[in-house]
Amino acid sequence: MPGSPHAKLEVLTDLIYGALFGETSWQAFLDALAATMPDAKSTLFFHDAVAKTGGLSLSSGLENAEIEAYSRYYAAINPWMPRATTRPIGLGVIADQMLPREQLLKTEFYNDYIRWIGCESSVGVTIMRERGRSFNLSTLTSSADPDFNRSNAELLSELAPHLRRAFDFIRREHSDPHDNENGLALFDAIGVGIVYIGEDQNIRSMNSAAERMIAEGEAIGATSTGRIMINDGELASRLSALLHNRLQAASPASTLIGMKNTSFKCTLVKMQSDFITEFLEGPTVAMIIERASLPLRPDLNDALLRIDQLTAAEMRIAAGIAAGLSLREVARTNDVSYETARSHLKNIYSKLGVNSQVGLVRRLMP
């Protein structure tokens, strides 16, 4: 990226807030950051010092095979990370401050990974650190010049407060229970149970339908500490795999279980999360519970087609809500901003004479 250090900072800062408010993307920010150093590859990544695992949440310049190799093996032997766990949050550093270069050159990490991706060194900054897990921004580069790299580390120090401010904003947005409550009530309206399960199989939330279904038998339950309890071996194994795998599952996993005098179909879906939510909350799996004798939900397509006062964009938003997605998920699915999706939803409410997502689903039911 040409220009003075001040000009670079200004452009990158604008991209941070642009990504936060949906005017651009975090990918655009990383691409611009990578342009500040030779042969650079920039990444937002997490590292768990306790579990000795990590992953590249979002990157610029790295191939899929290089990303997968890091998450699968090299994150555990990254020699820069032990010192990184104690470095001050928000302070940009060069690789030499994490490990002297003469020691780095002797490591498997350097010889088999860093050189493989065409780099020699890196600069980085820790943005957040919680429960032994850190979230970091790093640029790997072919430059081994510590003086040149130090100026770019200083750039990361100046960007860090803006990144922290942006991620704090995202945290507050996701801590608002309003959207989640609407989503749970939406499934209640169509008679489907849903349980959101987080790390260590803790129940984050469940709707009333799920509570009633779980009460009908012993195959699924909840412990006194709020963890999901599954006596079906196949279902328990699938849930454990989804919660421990940072990669998105290729397809939902379903199984049929018996409860007293009826059967239920349980479907496990790993929820799509943006990179910062994944770091803050860990993986989330939705368990959808439906009575095997009933369909998951009525076919709403015909109902949508009968409502000719909705525009094509509004129909897509309504269809997503009716399918059980949150408004944020609908926005991501349709590649529009959250504010645009919310504006469409307000128009839908006005045209259909409803005032809630539950009311919308009921309006669409035949």
Structural summary, described in words:
This protein has 366 residues and is α+β, with helices and mostly antiparallel strands. It has three domains: 5-174, Beta-Lactamase, CATH 3.30.450; 193-296, Beta-Lactamase (2-Layer Sandwich); 297-366, Winged helix-like DNA-binding domain superfamily/Winged helix DNA-binding domain (Arc Repressor Mutant, subunit A). The chain is 46% helix and 20% strand. It is built from 17 helices and twelve strands. It has helices at 5-20, 26-34, 64-72, 81-84, 95-98, 101-104, 108-114, 146-175, 177-189, 208-215, 233-244, 275-281, 301-306, 312-322, 327-333, 338-352, 357-364; strands at residues 41-48, 53-60, 93-94, 121-130, 133-141, 193-197, 203-206, 220-222, 228-230, 253-259, 262-270, 285-291. The chain has a five-stranded antiparallel sheet. It has a five-stranded antiparallel sheet with strand order 7-6-12-11-10. The protein has a two-stranded antiparallel sheet with strand order 8-9. The radius of gyration is 24 Å and the shape is globular. The model is unreliable at 247-251 and 293-299 (pLDDT under 50).
